[in-house]
Amino acid sequence: MAETYVKQDSNHTIGVEFGSRVVNVGGKTVKLQIWDTAGQERFRSVTRSYYRGAAGALLVYDITSRETYNSLAAWLTDARTLASPNIVVILCGNKKDLDPEREVTFLEASRFAQENELMFLETSALTGENVEEAFLKCARTILNKIDSGELDPERMGSGIQYGDASLRQLRQPRSAQAVAPQPCGC
């Protein structure tokens, strides 16, 4: 799914692939550094090392594969343990275009998301449906957590770097943003 979002084409991920994309979120320019890790169990030991410092994750399963859905709890535990307990996680049921072959119901996945305090949506990497929305929802939620003070970009390992001064203003109290200091004139 990440490859579709970054490159507009799609293949199975082997190990880890990297990409980036610049998006506008609420008037802020945000560069998403995207690490697409393979979901197969045989790559788990390799991909676990890439969680460190991640601010957000899309936890993707295949709606036509019960096996991928059954692995979600382990992948979620890895993300929360190895990245951060405050990591923003979006649960994505991929291959929405193959609905007649569905093995995991929308309701079942919705319950898993609710029980684990995840946002949830279904996507199709093939058609692009909801793919951009998943990434933007993750970015918006991260920015909201910075704004509320729940995520501190100044903390080492937060997975966030400032690229411009406008993002730094998110961490200042609203009153400090509105009032600029005046020169003394002494």
From TrEMBL:
Species annotation: Callorhinus ursinus
Keywords tagged on the record:
GTP-binding, Nucleotide-binding
Stated family: Belongs to the small GTPase superfamily. Rab family.
User: What molecular function terms (GO) are annotated for this protein?
Assistant: GTP binding; GTPase activity
Q: Which residues cross the membrane?
A: none
Pfam families cross-referenced by the UniProt entry: Ras (PF00071)
The encoding gene: RAB4B
Question: What is this protein called in UniProt?
Answer: Ras-related protein Rab-4B isoform X2
